[in-house]
């Protein structure tokens, strides 16, 4: 009998496991997912799901392991705040998975949890991972560490190294800026101001800048919103025309500002039928709220 069938039989008779073991057995054989069924299983799943799924996380099939981790991630979003650290810890341990794509997905999932869900134990894990230069998706790992306040001293030593690759140096500066390091905030601001406002800046650099949640850096984004320079191009391939970058910057900035009057839809676009009016509203709001508050408890 195959190992995964033995594991499934071992768990049969544990009703609170929610029959997830049987579903995973079927998934391993067919490779087919049933989102509706998964949602039903997660409703009844116990808080010790990460422990129960441990044997499945060691399977030889990458897609099978990732599916098991997805159950931990999704249940972790559902449990009370006092239990989330159990799920976050299990996910973070998954960053030792031999497949880089699994590690990358786990790091993305971890961004969905509030910083309070990361226990001192997970902070210690971050610091051990940072020492592993072969860790895949290193930028994501460094920035997630900055989000939870891990590895500060290591990062400070890294930015002093002349041979640090530029991409990693940028990630470390961003992470330190997120942790409130004045020198790194200044370095990020200098880098941003040396760049030209265009599509590439908005798409690839500003999300990193907004990640820091530092007023000095977000104020530069506010300046872009106030600018009338036609520096960007419409994202519509059938109607490429010059447009204000402020619209796209506003989409990035709005979700992190407390009590901001302009909301963003689930797909990241402004929740409005009149973009021009929304931009004018945003400009006026920032002029009247120079001491705006920033959400800092989310990635």
What does this protein structure show overall?
With 299 residues, the chain is mainly α. The protein has a two-stranded antiparallel sheet with strand order 1-2. Strand 1 and strand 2 form a beta hairpin. Helix 9 runs parallel beside helix 11, helix 10 packs antiparallel against helix 11 and helix 14 runs antiparallel to helix 15. It starts with a helix and ends in an 11-residue tail after the last helix.
Strand and helix layout:
Blueprint: H1 3-11, H2 20-30, H3 35-44, H4 49-52, H5 62-78, H6 84-93, H7 100-110, H8 120-130, H9 138-148, H10 152-158, H11 166-178, H12 182-193, H13 199-211, H14 215-226, E1 232-233, E2 242-243, H15 246-253, H16 275-288
Antiparallel strand pairs: 1-2
Helix pairs in contact: 5-6, 5-7, 6-8, 8-9, 9-11, 10-11, 11-12, 13-15, 14-15
């Amino acid at each position: 009998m195959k190992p995964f069938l033995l594991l499934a039989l071992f768990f049969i008779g544990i009703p609170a496991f929610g029959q997830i073991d049987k579903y995973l057995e079927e998934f391993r054989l067919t490779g087919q997912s049933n989102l509706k069924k998964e949602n039903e299983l997660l409703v009844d799943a116990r808080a010790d799901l990460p422990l129960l799924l441990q044997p499945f996380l060691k399977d030889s099939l990458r897609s099978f392991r990732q599916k098991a981790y997805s159950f931990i991630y999704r249940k972790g979003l559902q449990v009370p705040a006092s239990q989330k650290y159990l799920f976050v810890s299990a996910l973070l341990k998954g960053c030792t998975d031999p497949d880089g794509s699994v590690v990358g997905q786990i790091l993305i999932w971890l961004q969905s949890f509030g910083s309070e869900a990361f226990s001192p134990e997970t902070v210690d894990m971050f610091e051990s991972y940072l020492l592993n230069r072969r860790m895949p998706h290193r930028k994501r790992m460094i920035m997630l560490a900055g989000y939870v306040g891990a590895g500060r001293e290591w990062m400070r030593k890294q930015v002093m190294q002349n041979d640090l690759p530029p991409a990693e140096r940028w990630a470390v500066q961003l992470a330190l800026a997120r942790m409130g390091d004045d020198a790194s905030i200044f370095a990020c601001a200098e880098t941003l101001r040396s760049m030209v406002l265009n599509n590439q800046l908005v798409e690839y650099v500003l999300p990193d800048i907004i990640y820091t949640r530092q007023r000095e850096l977000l104020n530069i984004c506010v300046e872009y919103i106030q600018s009338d320079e036609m520096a960007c191009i419409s994202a519509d391939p059938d109607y490429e025309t010059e447009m204000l970058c402020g619209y796209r910057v506003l989409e990035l900035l709005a979700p992190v500002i407390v009590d901001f009057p302009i909301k963003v839809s689930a797909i990241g676009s402004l929740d409005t039928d009149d973009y021009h009016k929304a931009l004018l509203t945003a400009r006026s709001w920032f002029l009247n709220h120079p001491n705006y508050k920033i959400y800092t408890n989310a990635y």
